Amino acid sequence: MVDDSVDRFFEVLADPTRRQVVRLLGEGPQRAGRLAQATGTSSPAMSRHLRILLSAGVVTDERVADDARVRVFRLRAEPVVAVQAWLDQVQAHWQEQLGAFKKYVDQTGETS
């Protein structure tokens, strides 16, 4: 069963620019301006993407001590961990199914 956080994670990552932002933030914290430049988007468009990622809990932000107008964005580990746990469950299911199929083939003596 997929929980809401995994659904939301995939929903927000349906957009290629947001996937690129997540990839960039996986390399380390970034300012919005740097993310906009790296993705080739305007500042207002990047602001919208970051707002969506923030509301989904995929990223977090913090103010820079020297300038409260500047925010640094970071990737949150929790949503990624939840997706990895879900993928592990899917993989375990398919491993079980393939194991059962192999056992069936071995028992019936079916060969190509």
TrEMBL record:
<dbReference type="GO" id="GO:0003700">
    <property type="term" value="F:DNA-binding transcription factor activity"/>
</dbReference>
<dbReference type="InterPro" id="IPR011991">
    <property type="entry name" value="ArsR-like_HTH"/>
</dbReference>
<dbReference type="InterPro" id="IPR036390">
    <property type="entry name" value="WH_DNA-bd_sf"/>
</dbReference>
<feature type="domain" description="HTH arsR-type">
    <location>
        <begin position="1"/>
        <end position="98"/>
    </location>
</feature>
<dbReference type="InterPro" id="IPR001845">
    <property type="entry name" value="HTH_ArsR_DNA-bd_dom"/>
</dbReference>
<dbReference type="InterPro" id="IPR036388">
    <property type="entry name" value="WH-like_DNA-bd_sf"/>
</dbReference>
<dbReference type="Pfam" id="PF12840">
    <property type="entry name" value="HTH_20"/>
</dbReference>
<protein>
    <submittedName>
        <fullName>ArsR family transcriptional regulator</fullName>
    </submittedName>
</protein>
